[in-house]
Structure formats: C-alpha cells, structure tokens
Write a structure and sequence with these properties.
The protein is an alpha+beta fold and 416 residues long. Strand 8 and strand 9 form a beta hairpin. It has helices spanning 6-28, 30-35, 95-100, 103-128, 225-228, 265-279, 290-302, and strands at residues 37-39, 46-54, 75-82, 84-93, 138-140, 144-153, 173-177, 187-192, 197-206, 211-214, 237-238, 241-242, 252-254, 285-288, 327-328, 331-335, 344-347, 352-356, 363-364, 373-374, 380-393, 400-402.
C-alpha cells in the first residue's frame, strides 16, 4: 500500500459515491422527488428571474384599412433568489487499519460512515424545504433556570403545539433566539423524552418563548413551501418582492380566522379550482400530513360514501379516497411527514423547482482541491457534502394553501 494516498479515494468519492448520494437525495427526499431540481444561473449568490404581471394589450379588431392597434409590451416584475448552503459533515476513524486492509476496505468504511450522514442530510433538507427559511424547529415553553429539562411547543406555522419535539433529536446541537435575556448557544440535546419535552446534556438557562434553531442556522436556510405558498402572513417579502405591494407574489390562502374546521370536499374543490380561475393554474398535486389524511379518510369511510364498482375492483370513495391510490378530482394526494399538520397544499408544480449552483444538486466541499482531510491528532479523515441553492416558485399566484384544519396530532415521538 506504499503508493496509496487519499487522492486515490478522492477520485472514488467523486466519480462513484457522489452520484449515488445525489440519486438517493432525489429519490428519497420528498420535496425533491416531487419537484425535481435543475441548475440555476446564479450571479454571485443570487438568481434573477422575471415574472410577467400583465399581457401585451396591443390588440383589437379594425375596419379594413383602419389604424392598427397601438404597440404595447408586457409588464414584468424581477425576482431575486438568494442561494443558500446546507452542509453534511462526516468522519471515518481507523483509517490506518482500513488502508492496511486495502482500498476496498476503506471505501466500505467510508460508505458506512456516509450512509448515516446522508440520511440525516436528507431528513434535514426535506424539513427545510417545507419551512419558511427561518430555520425554526420549536419554541421554549416556560422559563428554564439552571436545569436540564426543557418543555417545548411546536412552530406556530406548523400547527403542532401538541408535537413540539417533532423536529428535535438526540445529539442535535441547538441555539435559541428571541428570549428576553437568556438564550442558548451551541447546547446539545441528550434525549427527546416526549412530544413536548427534551433533556439537555448540561444545565441550561433559557427564557420562555425563545425559538430553537440548529446551531448557527437561524435565517440561513433555503425557502420552503410554507413560505412559498403564502399571502404575506408568514413570509412578507418573497424573492425580494413585498407581498403587500405586489398581489402577483401572493398565493391563495383559504383560512378560517384561526378557527379549526374539518377538511371537506368543498374545501378541496376550492383549492383545486380557484387557482385556475385566479391565475390559470393547473393544480397537479395535493400535499398533506399523514395525520390529516387519516382524519379525512376516516370521515369518508365512516359515512360509507363510496361509488359503486364492479366485482373485484378497488372501491373508490367520495372525495377521491382510494385505498390503493389517493386522489381528488384526478389530482394525486401525496403524504409527507414534514408537512404542517393542520394545512393542505394544492400546487401547480410546473412553476416550482429546486435551483442549484454547480454540476449537481450536491457537491463535495473541495475548494482546496481535496475532498478528504485528516482530522488533527487522530487516526481519522473527514469530508463535507453541501447543496448550494434554493426552492424557487416562478408564479406564487398558481399555488393554494388550506389553513385552520382540525387534526388528531400523533401521540408519539418521531424517530427519523
């Protein structure tokens, strides 16, 4: 093995492992698998796009020999989409031993270490692409003074106050912000004890209502569907345009002034048809949390509202519930664990894409020409993958969100 160097492994990671990571992320990350991804033409850290707001009105009928209509042009607004970095970092120990056993052993050790990192990267990225770009994970409920136990509520926009620990996990390093005077900085979670409680690795002091974030991630995450499919209530400035100024960047939100109501066929019909009436949208996807789908499906089944079918055919229930394939008015219904529980999203996916910079959706952090670097004073090497991009919507008016829906919150801790 005298001729073996880390540069040899660099080539394996670049040519073999990275394409596998990219395929896994595209296939298994819910949002990316639904919308896809494509290279973005970034100028520095931002991409500039045009949104047509009015059509050319240089049209009209005339008598023979009459004066032609006055020439006009369409009006446009300019979107600016900032690219954001999301990282995944891993280390492999026992490198010397693996090298001694051959390149194959080292590659196997590397892939084993990367499998867990890539899975965490995938889960985190999907959570991000459902969010609003702020990075909020939960909110502290009650002052904590020199104690390890912290009670938490969920993020308001996710309708999950009963599931506050939904996006928290053992070993996660967190910060807080928004506390009156006491906030956390790079503190580790020792355990997730219930849907509303975590235990920290050491005594902490933090104020009530402080927001919890991944370490150093506050306001640095890519935009997600909660911010895209919004009318300005959650994200007031979208892609550099004020939603209060420009109606063209407001999605349709079917709310009920904060009062809960059941998801009905009438609401789903509005979500599918009104974006078409409003902006010519073709809604081709309905997204909801499994808890919302379960609540809705049970209401249909309990009412025994099914269409007649031939023998041996799968029954199709009113509202589109099909035990084999869920849909409504021909629009597929997909479930995602990171979807805000009390909301339903009706999307025209033709104008939503994850734009990324570079040759692929993920890349190695190899700015110095090396993928792997040795860990100081240890028999280990480490590497970092990253995605550099953002979730983009070229026409928010074609999207719809149903708010204020009743749901039955999961009574268990999510381990993902």
């Amino acid at each position: 093995m005298a001729n073996f160097t880390l540069s040899v492994l660099d080539e394996v990671l670049k040519d073999v492992v990275l394409p596998e990571i990219e395929k896994l992320l595209m296939d298994e990350t819910g949002i990316l698998s639904l919308f896809g991804a494509r290279p973005g033409k970034y100028t520095g850290r931002k991409q500039i796009m045009a949104l047509k707001t009015d059509r050319n009105q240089g049209i009209g009928a005339r008598a023979e020999g009459g004066t032609l209509p006055t020439a006009q042009t369409a009006d446009y607004l300019q979107f600016e989409v900032m690219a954001k970095y999301v990282y995944g970092r891993f280390a492999v120990t026992g490198v010397a031993k693996a090298i001694g056993q051959g390149l194959g052993s080292l590659v196997n050790a590397m892939q084993e270490a990367m499998t867990d990192m890539v899975e965490s990267f995938r889960v985190n990225l999907n959570r991000i692409l459902w969010g609003d770009g702020t990075g909020k994970l939960a909110q502290v409920n009650g002052d904590v003074s020199s104690d390890t136990t912290v009670t938490v509520d969920g993020v308001t926009g996710y309708g999950q106050n009963a599931v506050g620990t939904r996006f928290l996990a053992k070993g996660m390093i967190i910060d807080t912000a928004g506390g009156a005077s006491n906030n956390l900085d790079s503190e580790s979670i020792a355990s997730v004890d219930s849907t509303t409680q975590i235990t920290m690795s050491q005594n902490v002091t933090v104020d009530d209502n402080a927001w919890i974030y991944l370490e150093d991630s506050k306001d640095k995450e890519p935009m997600g569907l909660l911010g895209i499919v919004d009318d300005g209530t959650i994200v007031s400035t979208f892609q550099n345009l004020s939603r209060s100024t420009y109606e063209q960047v407001q999605a349709l939100v079917l709310g009920n002034s904060g009062t809960g109501r059941d998801l009905t066929e009438s609401l789903l019909a509005q979500a599918v048809m009104q974006p078409y009436e409003r902006a010519g949208a073709r809604i081709d996807l309905l997204l909801m949390h499994p808890s919302m789908w379960r609540t809705y499906a049970e209401s249909l089944i309990s009412a025994d509202r099914s269409f007649l079918v031939r023998p041996n055919e799968t029954p199709v229930y009113s509202g589109g519930y099909n035990p084999a394939q869920a849909s409504y008015m021909g629009v597929p219904i997909k479930l995602d664990l990171d979807c805000p529980i009390h909301r339903v999203f009706a999307l025209d996916t033709s104008v939503i894409t994850y734009y990324y910079a570079g040759d692929g959706i993920v890349s190695w952090m190899d700015d110095d020409g090396r993928i792997l670097s040795r860990v100081a004073d240890k028999d280990a090497v480490e590497g970092v993958i990253r995605t550099y991009g953002n979730l983009v919507c070229r026409n928010p008016m074609k999207q719809c969100r149903i708010d204020d829906l009743n749901y039955t919150a999961p009574g268990f801790i999510e381990h993902r």
